[in-house]
């Protein structure tokens, strides 16, 4: 693809954004009900889908096939035009899709990939009260009975479970096997009897995380992904998506959305009339953040374009993004000052950097803790990337 | 020079800790938030019984140390009551407490108590202050409210240092607690077949936080001594303490939250409450950057006097 092709594509995306990004959505999506949020997300997803922009990272045969260079441009322009994020479809188009594409059966792909394009919402049911960083210690059980599995247990930190149609579920099918070997991977219909979803209220005041209680939930055997007891291997694909492909969009959004607002914030005169930007310390911090952002965006683009990424590349990107997001939102909260503490609602459908800096900073901890904490990422980089010996394990 | 608290003051602090535990401990802040109207009744009787309002921190050296110890104990339980502000009341005015405020938009965590306040700016301008009725619940305001200030005089320069130092002792109690909670959590939480505390990566983060906390503790003692000794540079020392305590709070709470994992952001954990109620003292009267800026202007190129005056030219 030539530079001219890419420029032409960029023009096309810009025209599309100007015509289709909803005007004033930030104001309208602040403080709306769950129902309004869901319907707004669904409409926006379909709008993107009609343009071929909803799942550009999927294979062409399933509706994607966009070259990585064009994806970068697409995400840059969506962020620069302040388009809403696909919050609700996130797990479906990334985690569910990459799992199904890598390990699903043809029947599973045909059943779910088109349904995801039609708006099927997914949630990830991995963590448990006793299995966070040590995910393989999970104890939710799935007992085979005839053509089905009967599942019992509890899942925690299931983001968006309240709206989900389907769940990516890890459960233990062989309690006697070593812990990584006895886990299986299921697709669970959230309408099945025995599922109880309860919201957990967070420090930001939202209830995005949920608990899922599973009481004799029957899952047909055809919803098993990959062979029985090989769920751990399949789950690595799901987690790989979280640490890999999704980052391209997030990095471009941070650079073209969040950072731009931070600069605007610093250019606004404060109570005394002076602009924070005129303070050399502030200017210095902004320059340092922009340098880091440039590095992050390059790392992400390389990760996605690379046919054969290194064993720790995705972890490097996740670690770098999450800690940079934290530094940047922290600085935003600092510059925005006391007044920012009174902004207690942020527009739904916005990204991790909404411009409500205090909420964004608190929310940034959703990055250094879930999906493998920063410590887990460091262990992976040390052990798999640098080939260092594993830390001695507890007995 | 001995900057350690006297044994009597330390014992007073331990008694206060026990009395507040008996009165409800961690539930005190939760109850106050749920029923803001009961805020006074929840802790004021205990404090009265402890003789808190009989202390004369501005007039008596032993009382000053006892006051600091009491603030630390109140911080440990994140008691949602302006203990430090009441103890810092000026000697020459008939009021219930003193709030150090910024030059503009004066605020304090003193909503809904019906007490008589005096506000003082860092350069000593004093005014009668009336706490406005807050229009947001304590869940989001942590009892911070705007103050209506009627100018009184410019004689408060001597009030400021203690008014800054005592809240730092409250914050110190919160840091004590955050470290203690996190230590317990990483010992109790098992992942990968053992307690998180077995991981050196976890240990090092907690030890870094503890180093920050103990540095703030040493400075708290030094700044208290500086006030007690009536040193000319007591305000410099108070600002230096505030800066160090705010920096320590960032490190300590950041580490505490990270090592607790997601549960640390839910109100099921005590950490979430302590962290939230540490916000007013960390933001008011000046946040981290503003405190640093103020200290820099205050000491200019002179530097802090410190323990060994004259050691450098």
From TrEMBL, chain A:
Record's keyword terms, sorted: FAD, Flavoprotein, Oxidoreductase
Cofactor requirements of the protein: FAD
Protein name: Acyl-CoA dehydrogenase
Family, per entry: Belongs to the acyl-CoA dehydrogenase family.
Residues of the Acyl-CoA oxidase/dehydrogenase middle domain: 125-217
Domain Acyl-CoA dehydrogenase/oxidase N-terminal: 5-120
Pfam families, A to Z: Acyl-CoA_dh_1 (PF00441), Acyl-CoA_dh_M (PF02770), Acyl-CoA_dh_N (PF02771)
Organism whose genome encodes this protein: Thermomonospora echinospora
Organism classification: Bacteria, Bacillati, Actinomycetota, Actinomycetes, Streptosporangiales
Annotated Acyl-CoA dehydrogenase/oxidase C-terminal domain residues: 229-385
Entries under SUPFAM superfamilies matching the protein: Acyl-CoA dehydrogenase C-terminal domain-like (SSF47203), Acyl-CoA dehydrogenase NM domain-like (SSF56645)
Molecular function via GO: flavin adenine dinucleotide binding; oxidoreductase activity, acting on the CH-CH group of donors
This protein's GO CC annotations: plasma membrane
Keyword Oxidoreductase: yes
Stored PANTHER family: ACYL-COA DEHYDROGENASE, ACYL-COA DEHYDROGENASE FADE29
UniProtKB/TrEMBL annotation, chain B:
Domain of life: Bacteria
UniProt keyword annotation of Protein transport present: no
Keywords from the UniProt entry: Flavoprotein, Oxidoreductase
GO molecular function annotation: acyl-CoA dehydrogenase activity
InterPro entries xrefs: Acyl-CoA_dehydrogenase (IPR050741), AcylCo_DH-like_C (IPR036250), AcylCo_DH/oxidase_C (IPR009075)
Keyword Oxidoreductase: yes
Domain Acyl-CoA dehydrogenase/oxidase C-terminal: 168-276
Organism of origin: Thermomonospora echinospora
Pfam family, one: Acyl-CoA_dh_1
A single cellular component GO annotation: cytoplasm
Protein's recorded name: Acyl-CoA dehydrogenase, C-terminal domain
UniProt GO BP: fatty acid beta-oxidation using acyl-CoA dehydrogenase
């Amino acid at each position: 693809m030539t530079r001219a092709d890419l420029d032409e594509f960029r023009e096309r995306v810009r025209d599309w954004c100007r015509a289709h990004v909803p005007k004033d959505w930030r104001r309208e999506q602040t403080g709306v009900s769950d129902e309004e949020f869901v319907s707004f997300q669904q409409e926006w997803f379909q709008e993107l889908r009609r343009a071929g922009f909803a799942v550009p990272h999927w294979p062409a045969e399933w509706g994607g096939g966009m070259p990585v260079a064009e994806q970068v441009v697409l995400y840059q322009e969506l962020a620069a035009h302040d388009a809403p994020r696909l919050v609700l479809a996130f797990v479906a188009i990334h985690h569910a899709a990459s799992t199904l594409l890598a390990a699903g059966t043809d029947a599973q792909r045909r059943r779910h990939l088109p349904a995801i394009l039609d708006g099927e919402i997914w949630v990830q049911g991995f963590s448990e009260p006793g299995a966070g960083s040590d995910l393989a210690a999970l104890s939710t059980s799935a007992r085979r009975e005839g053509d089905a599995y009967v599942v019992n247990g509890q899942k925690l930190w299931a983001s968006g479970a309240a709206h989900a149609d389907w769940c990516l579920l890890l459960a233990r099918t062989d309690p006697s096997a070593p812990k990584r070997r006895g886990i299986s991977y299921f697709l669970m219909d959230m309408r099945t009897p025995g599922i109880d979803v309860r919201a957990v209220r967070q420090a930001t005041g939202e209830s995005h995380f949920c608990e899922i209680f599973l009481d004799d939930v029957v899952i047909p055997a055809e919803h098993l992904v990959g062979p029985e007891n090989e769920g751990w291997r399949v789950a690595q694909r799901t987690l790989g998506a979280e640490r890999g492909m999704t980052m391209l969009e997030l990095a471009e959004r941070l650079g073209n959305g969040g950072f731009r607002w931070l600069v605007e914030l610093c250019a606004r005169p404060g109570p005394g009339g002076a602009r924070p930007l005129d303070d050399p310390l502030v200017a210095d911090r902004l320059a340092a953040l922009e340098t880091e952002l440039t590095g992050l965006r390059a790392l992400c683009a390389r990760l996605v374009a690379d046919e054969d990424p290194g064993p720790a590349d995705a972890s490097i990107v996740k670690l770098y993004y999450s800690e940079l997001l934290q530094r940047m939102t922290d600085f935003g909260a600092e510059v925005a000052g006391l007044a920012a503490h009174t902004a207690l609602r942020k527009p739904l459908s916005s990204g991790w950097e909404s411009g409500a800096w205090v909420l964004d900073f608190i929310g940034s901890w959703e990055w250094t803790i879930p999906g493998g904490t920063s410590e887990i990422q460091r262990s992976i980089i040390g052990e798999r990337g640098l080939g260092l010996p594993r830390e001695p394990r507890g007995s | 020079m001995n900057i350690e608290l006297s044994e009597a003051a330390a014992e007073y602090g331990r008694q206060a800790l026990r009395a507040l535990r008996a009165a409800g401990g961690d539930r005190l802040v939760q109850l106050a938030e749920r029923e803001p109207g009961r805020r006074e009744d929840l802790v004021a009787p205990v404090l009265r019984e402890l003789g808190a309002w009989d202390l004369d921190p501005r007039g008596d050296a032993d009382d000053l140390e006892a006051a600091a110890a009491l603030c630390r104990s109140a911080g440990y339980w994140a008691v949602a009551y302006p203990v430090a502000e009441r103890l810092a009341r000026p000697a020459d005015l008939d009021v219930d407490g003193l709030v150090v405020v910024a030059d503009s938009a004066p605020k304090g965590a003193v909503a809904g108590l019906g007490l008589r306040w005096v506000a003082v700016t860092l350069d000593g301008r004093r005014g009668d202050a009336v706490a406005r009725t807050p229009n947001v619940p304590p869940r989001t305001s942590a009892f911070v409210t705007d103050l209506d200030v009627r100018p009184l005089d410019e004689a408060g320069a001597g009030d400021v240092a203690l008014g800054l130092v005592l809240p730092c002792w409250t914050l110190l109690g919160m840091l004590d607690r955050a470290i203690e909670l996190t230590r317990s959590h990483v010992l109790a939480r098992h992942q990968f077949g053992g307690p998180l505390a077995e991981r050196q990566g976890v240990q090092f983060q907690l030890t870094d936080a503890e180093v920050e906390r103990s540095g703030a503790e040493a400075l708290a003692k030094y700044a208290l001594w500086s006030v007690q000794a009536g040193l000319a540079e007591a305000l410099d020392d108070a600002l230096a303490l505030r800066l160090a305590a705010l920096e320590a709070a960032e490190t300590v709470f950041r580490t505490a939250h990270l090592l607790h994992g997601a549960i640390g952001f839910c109100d099921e954990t005590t950490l979430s409450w302590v962290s939230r109620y540490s916000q007013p003292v960390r933001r008011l009267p000046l946040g981290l950057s503003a405190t640093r800026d103020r200290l820099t202007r205050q000491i200019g190129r002179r530097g802090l006097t410190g323990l060994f005056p004259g050691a450098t030219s």
